[in-house]
Design brief:
Layout: H1 7-20, H2 29-36, E1 41-45, E2 48-52, H3 59-72, E3 75-76, E4 81-82, H4 85-96, H5 101-122
Antiparallel strand pairs: 1-2, 3-4
């Protein structure tokens, strides 16, 4: 079910399914994201519109998604191999756009929620997106 194949993934997948429960409770991925406490909270009054990190929501689900996001963006081992180049590139793209590391991980978490929602709703396995071929 997961991108990285080891025993941790089975445990993470089981915990995700346990915390999310019935996916039909959520009509779209944005509602699942809000439930997980990933979506920002807006406070607005008059001309002021501020957004803060959501400290509510399901904190266990948020923690699981954060650990998965960190694992996917990890460059570990003595050879600095990428765990998942697609998520690592997305993380680096967000950093280059001026986001902090914490904000970039939040973006990776949101992308994970979209993928997980789609997988659970459609009852499919994860498939890496096709890579772009360069014309030489």
């Amino acid at each position: 079910m997961w991108v990285i194949y080891d025993a941790y993934n089975d445990i993470a997948a089981a915990n995700l399914i346990n915390e999310i429960g019935d996916i039909d409770r959520f009509s779209n991925a944005a509602k699942l994201s809000r439930y997980a406490g990933i979506s920002p909270v807006s406070y607005s009054s008059g001309k002021t519109d501020l957004q803060f990190a959501n400290e509510r929501g399901n904190r266990r689900l948020n923690g699981i998604l954060f650990k998965i996001a960190v694992t996917l963006c990890n460059t570990g081992g003595k050879h600095k191999r990428l765990t998942n180049p697609i998520f690592y590139d997305y993380y680096k793209k967000k950093i280059s756009e001026g986001k902090t590391s914490k904000q970039a991980f939040k973006c990776v978490q949101r992308r994970l929620v979209n993928i997980i929602f789609s997988m659970m709703k459609n009852k499919t396995e994860y498939q890496n997106p096709p890579t772009k071929k360069l014309d030489v």
